C-alpha cells in the first residue's frame, strides 16, 4: 500500500470505529482485524502502519469525531508528514479543502473531562490516560518464579512480586512459557490490586466479578491452589473463558458460578456468611484503561456511568452478606473517577457501619478516600482504585 492508501484505510476504519462506539458495537481492535480480513492485499507492515494511524488519531481527538477524515485531520495538525498525503491520487484521501475543520482535540468529551477534573485528574495526569501502555506479565507462582524463570527477553521487574514489564507488542503469547502456563498477561496495576486481597491457602474467596478470570488466576496462585475460589459473573461468554485459562495455568480450585443480573444473591445463597474474602472487581467506566482502549471515551455516557455506579453499590452491599465476621471485602475499579472510587467506598462505609476500612500496605498509589488510586502518570499502570474493609 502507498502511504496515501494507508491514510485512506485509516480513515475508513475510523469511520467504522466511530459508528461502532456510537452503537456500543465491537471494540476498535476487532474493527481493525475485521477490516483487514477482507483486504488481503495489505501486508503486515501495512497493517501495523494503518493500526498506528488509527490509534494515534483516536488519541488525538477528545470528543467523538464526526468522521474518520476529521479525526485524521486532527492528527495531521500535529504531524507535518500527513497533510501532503491528502493528494487525491488513486486510493488517496481527497485534498484538504480550505476551511475544512478537524475533529476537536482534548482528553475526552467535555462532560467527562469535567468529571475527571472534579476527581483531581487534570493536566499531565489527564494526558497520561492516553499514553501508550507497555505489556506487563505476571509469572504464575504455581508453576514458576520470577527470580528463576528463563524467558526469551529479560523484562523490567515491577513492584508486584511476580510482575515483569516489556515493550508493547512483545510477542509473549508465542513464548513457550506462555504456552506452558508459566506466565499470564496482566497489567501491573491489576496485579497490585490482587495483593490487596491477600488471599491465603485454605480460605474461601469469592471473586464476584470474575469476567475471564484475570484476577481469579492471580488469587489462585496467591492461595497456592488450596481452598475454595468461587469465580462469579453475569456474563456467560466472559466466564467461559476462565476454564481453558485455568487449565493452562494449573489452577484447580476455581469453580465458576454464572449469576442472573439482579438475582445474584440467589445464586450465592450457599456462600452467605462463609467467605473469608470477597473481591469486587466491579463493572465500571473503564477510564483507567484508555491507554489500551482510547475509544472507550466515546462509548461512555452519563447514563452508563450512573448504571455502573448503581451496580457497584449494590454489589458492595451484597458482599457484606457474603463475608463471615472478620472477613474482608476488596473493592476495585479500573477508573479514576471518585464516584467509582473514593466516593463510592466512603458512601459504602457510611451505609455499613459494621465494615471498617483497612490501610493498604502497598508501596504505590495515592491514598484517596480510604483506599489507593493508581494512575498511569504516577504509577505507570492502568488507572485503578482499590480499597479494603473488614466486617467487625
Ligand atoms: C472489570 S470486569 C472484571 C475483570 C476480571 N475480574 C479480570 O480481572 O479479568 C467487570 C465484570 O463485572 C461483570 N458484571 C457486570 N455486572 C455484574 C453483576 N451484577 N454481578 C457480577 N458481575 C457483574 C462483567 O460481566 C465483567 O466481567
UniProtKB/TrEMBL annotation:
Residues 102-392 form the SAM-dependent MTase RsmB/NOP-type domain. S-adenosyl-L-methionine binds at residues 233, 281. The keyword Lyase does not apply. It holds the Pfam family Methyltr_RsmB-F. The active site is at residue 334. InterPro entries: MeTrfase_RsmB-F_NOP2_cat (IPR049560), MeTrfase_RsmB-F_NOP2_dom (IPR001678), RCMT (IPR023267), SAM-dependent_MTases_sf (IPR029063). One of its GO terms (biological process) is RNA methylation. Keywords: Methyltransferase, RNA-binding, S-adenosyl-L-methionine, Transferase. Belongs to the class I-like SAM-binding methyltransferase superfamily. RsmB/NOP family. This is RsmB/NOP family class I SAM-dependent RNA methyltransferase. It comes from Novosphingobium umbonatum.
Amino acid at each position: 500500500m502507498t502511504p496515501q492508501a494507508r491514510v485512506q484505510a485509516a480513515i475508513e476504519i475510523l469511520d467504522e470505529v466511530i459508528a461502532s462506539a456510537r452503537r456500543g458495537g465491537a471494540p476498535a481492535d476487532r474493527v481493525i482485524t475485521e477490516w483487514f480480513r477482507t483486504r488481503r492485499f495489505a501486508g503486515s507492515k501495512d497493517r501495523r502502519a494503518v493500526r498506528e494511524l488509527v490509534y494515534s488519531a483516536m488519541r488525538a481527538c477528545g470528543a467523538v469525531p464526526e468522521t474518520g477524515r476529521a479525526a485524521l485531520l486532527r492528527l495531521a495538525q500535529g504531524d507535518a508528514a500527513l497533510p501532503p498525503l491528502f493528494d487525491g491520487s488513486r486510493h488517496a484521501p481527497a485534498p484538504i479543502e480550505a476551511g475544512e475543520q478537524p475533529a476537536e482535540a482534548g482528553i475526552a468529551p467535555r462532560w467527562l473531562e469535567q468529571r475527571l477534573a472534579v476527581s483531581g485528574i487534570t493536566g499531565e495526569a489527564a494526558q497520561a490516560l492516553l499514553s501508550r501502555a507497555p505489556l506487563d506479565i505476571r509469572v504464575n507462582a504455581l508453576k514458576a518464579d520470577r527470580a528463576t524463570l528463563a524467558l526469551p527477553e529479560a523484562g523490567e521487574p515491577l513492584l508486584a512480586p511476580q510482575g515483569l514489564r516489556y515493550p508493547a507488542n512483545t510477542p509473549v503469547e508465542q513464548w513457550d512459557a506462555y504456552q506452558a502456563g508459566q506466565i499470564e498477561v496482566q497489567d501491573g496495576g491489576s496485579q497490585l490490586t490482587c495483593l490487596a486481597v491477600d488471599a491465603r491457602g485454605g480460605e474461601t474467596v469469592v471473586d464476584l466479578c470474575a469476567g475471564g478470570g484475570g484476577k481469579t488466576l492471580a488469587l489462585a496462585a496467591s492461595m497456592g491452589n488450596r481452598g475454595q475460589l468461587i469465580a462469579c459473573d453475569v456474563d456467560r461468554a466472559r466466564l467461559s473463558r476462565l476454564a481453558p485459562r485455568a487449565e493452562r495455568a494449573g489452577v484447580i480450585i476455581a469453580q465458576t458460578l454464572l449469576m442472573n443480573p439482579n438475582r445474584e444473591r440467589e445464586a450465592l445463597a450457599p456462600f452467605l456468611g462463609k467467605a473469608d474474602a470477597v473481591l469486587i472487581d466491579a463493572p465500571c467506566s473503564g477510564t483507567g484503561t484508555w491507554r489500551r482502549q482510547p475509544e472507550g471515551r466515546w462509548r461512555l455516557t452519563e447514563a452508563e456511568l450512573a448504571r455502573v455506579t448503581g451496580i457497584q453499590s449494590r454489589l458492595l452491599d451484597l458482599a457484606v452478606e457474603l463475608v463471615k465476621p472478620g472477613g474482608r471485602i476488596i473493592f476495585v475499579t479500573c477508573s479514576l473517577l471518585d464516584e467509582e472510587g473514593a466516593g463510592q467506598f466512603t458512601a459504602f462505609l457510611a451505609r455499613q457501619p459494621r465494615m471498617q476500612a483497612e490501610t493498604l500496605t502497598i508501596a504505590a498509589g495515592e491514598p484517596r478516600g480510604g483506599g489507593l488510586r493508581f494512575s498511569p502518570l504516577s504509577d505507570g499502570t492502568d488507572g485503578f482504585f482499590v480499597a479494603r474493609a473488614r466486617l467487625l
